[in-house]
Amino acid sequence: MKRVLSTEKVSMRDVFGEILLQLSIEDETVYVLDGDLANSTKVDTVAMKNPKKFLQMGIAEQNMMSVAAGLATTGLQPWATTFAAFLSKRAIDQIQVQIAQPSLNVKMVGAYSGLLTGLTGKTHQALEDIAIFRSLANMVVLAPADSVEVKKMMEFAHKYKGPVYMRLARDPYPVIFSQDYNFELGKAVTLKEGKDITIISTGTQTSRSLEAAEKLEEEGISVAVIHMPTIKPLDKKAIIRAAETTGVIVTAEEHSIYGGLGSAVAEVLVEEKPVPMLRVGVKDRNAESAPNEELLEKYEISVKYVAEAVKKALKRK
Amino acid sequence: MNQTLSKENLAYLKEKSIEARRLIIETVFHAGAGHIGGPLSAVDVLVNLYFNEMNIDPQNPKAEDRDRFVLSKGHAAVGLYTVLAMRGYFPIEELKTFDALNSRLQAHPDMNALPGIDMSTGSLGQGISAAVGMALGAKLQKKDFVTYCMIGDGESQEGQVWEAADVASKYKLDNLVCILDYNKLQQFGWNAEGGGREIPVFEPEKRWEAFGWHVISIDGHDHVQISKAFKEARKINDKPTIIISNTIKGKGVSFMENQYLWHSRVLTGKEFNDAIQEIEMGFKK
């Protein structure tokens, strides 16, 4: 397969800032809205190099999202950016009423999603954003696995007419995809074939799932890994196919086990093809500030926990 | 005495106001639901906007360079619908579908459903921010259209209103004209000391001035004053304008005036007849 998982690590936010700068130069309708976190989300690249296309909205997320809606009605394509925690929780009513319901062409990018938010703790971690955005009608929900996919998704979102939510990670991740990777909305990506069990993962948890699968392979367990870059609309066929071919599923995400990818997959399996499954994710807990590796262990989403879930799930087969 | 409005225009607007009030009462009575006090306080400004002030074409409701209007106090939708119908955006007959299943006339305005609605509103505090986005969009694209937005005084308790006020002022949006429908009552609110209800937001003039806006205070039921205020607002440079429109909740129907219970209440048959009679007779004086 086209799996690379190189030792090269690139930060999603750096690529995000660069591509957004390019889009803002190439397309006169593209504007960037910032909730005063530009130097964290890396849209400061736009502020520095194409300041005319950068709109500071101050620390006021609700207003920022409604302003984005207003801008969109005048034919512009606003990219509203802040941390995933604030986007998904502080401004969700504005997003629903003024962006999702009227299906306006606003791109929403939640930086610092998940658990690993650079020693900022539970107020800045976003473990619910997938669940929240997924529950809104008309919404597209994306979770890239690496920096290449960020670029491809942004190119897609730029062409797509309608609201898109994309969650980004703060820290560098291994590069999985080659530059000729083609992102398709609502299509799962098989990164590794396997006979015994399938891991369905999204976002940052995809590289950890690949690592777990490799380790398990050494122990004689054949693990398929399917990356789900689009959580909404969900690739139901790929999920049903995985259930049919391997008969047991593990999901993995840097998100709460409630409402995220695991829930979405479970909904499909229960209705279409019931097979045993286990979810790897944060289990109904508020997290804390700590170094990355320690957080991954304590909140049970590290490579080790993915591998353990696979073994546990296999016993139910 | 004034050059803003000719005698004929003033008489025309007054007549439109009476017709709109009658349609508001009929629509709410027919639906057996809907807000009534707020639409009656807001309606003169709405009539003035659509029959005097705004550059719009009901035959081409999506025209790129049209003036925009956002009803941030979305619960006054009936007021806006009647004026849009009277202006020809859709048949007046359709007002009878207000609040009904599959109707384009939703309880709160839906921009995808009904021609003439520039932004979906209903959750308070959001409309004014969207209006800021429209005005900013006009500036960025060097377009000449003006964005108008009506907010409520109860709505002014939403923090987002002041987030919007701040950003509008920072971007010097002199192409944005807001109207505060200052009817001094909200759905329930606080008990006032010494009886009655507390005013939802005190000294709005001072607040808006502090946020860097140009402030005009008027009687929001007087078409001459409304027209003058709009004219003044269009001349202001580098600042957004807010018109503090002093109004009476339930205006035009004596038993509804200044009664918070008429924020949203269904009329009995007798009340309906009394209300229509008062509007047709009393208001013509």
Could you please describe the fold and organization of this structure?
The complex is a heterodimer of chains A (317) and B (285). By secondary structure, chain A is of the alpha/beta class. Chain A has helices spanning 12-26, 38-41, 44-49, 61-73, 84-89, 92-100, 129-134, 147-159, 205-218, 236-246, 261-272, 292-298, 303-314; strands spanning 9-10, 30-34, 54-56, 77-83, 107-111, 140-142, 164-167, 173-174, 189-192, 197-201, 223-227, 230-232, 249-256, 277-282. In chain A, the strands form three sheets. In chain A, strands 3-2-4-5-7-6-12 form a seven-stranded mixed beta sheet, with helices on both faces. In chain A, strand 10 (197-201), helix 9 and strand 11 (223-227) form a beta-alpha-beta unit. In chain A, helix 4 (61-73) runs parallel beside helix 6, helix 9 crosses helix 13 and helix 10 (236-246) packs across helix 11 (261-272). By secondary structure, chain B is of the alpha/beta class. Chain B has one domain (7-282): Rossmann fold (3-Layer(aba) Sandwich). Chain B has helices at 7-31, 37-53, 77-87, 126-140, 159-170, 204-210, 223-235, 269-282; strands spanning 68-71, 147-152, 176-182, 214-219, 241-246. Chain B is globular, with a radius of gyration of 18 Å. The two termini of chain B are 20 Å apart. Chains A and B meet through helix 4 and helix 6 of A and helix 4 and helix 5 of B.
